[in-house]
Amino acid sequence: MSHDNAVLGERLLSRCAAGTSSSALRAIAEAEAYGTGTPLASLHQRLADELGYRSDWQTFSADWCCHLAVDFSMLEFVEALGRRNRVLIFSNTNAGHWEYLVRATSGRLAAFEAYLSHEIGLLKPSSDAFRHVAQAGDIAPGRSIFFDDRADNVEGARAAGFRAEVFVGEAALRELLAREGVAWDEGEALRA
What we know:
Blueprint: E1 2-3, H1 5-14, H2 22-31, H3 40-51, H4 57-64, E2 68-69, H5 72-82, E3 88-91, H6 95-104, E4 113-116, H7 117-120, H8 127-136, E5 145-148, H9 151-159, E6 163-166, H10 170-179, H11 186-191
Parallel strand pairs: 3-4, 5-6
Antiparallel strand pairs: 1-2
């Protein structure tokens, strides 16, 4: 999955009152803990009340997810990896984004064991969040490898005892897993 927050900001600003600044938008979007369970309806209402956002809930929901994309090649690889290994998702997300991505993958994403910040009330890179996931998932951090595209999240995982690496792409991930002796069936990845 990938995201481009600049696209999201531009889309939301395009529906706000003329002259609304990106800093005003960012201040409202970051003021509440949407990633830890605050309902997105409150963000929609604040944007309407404070910035003149002019769209209904359905349009807001589409706007809120406009910056998300699914990397189906990566999804297929992780599915193949999961056939021989335990694969978990730990994501800083909110209900709207997660539901969108589950739909965009025709439910395939929901098949994974997921620890979602909006459900557990904790965000990466907090080492407390990683310890919570380890305990809830009955994971031995030192026997697990955590990948994330953000270095601060990798550092949080390491602080909680996980082996962790910055994700830079599928090819590098495959190479690292092969060096670690992690098995997957390449044929299954191609057929998925």
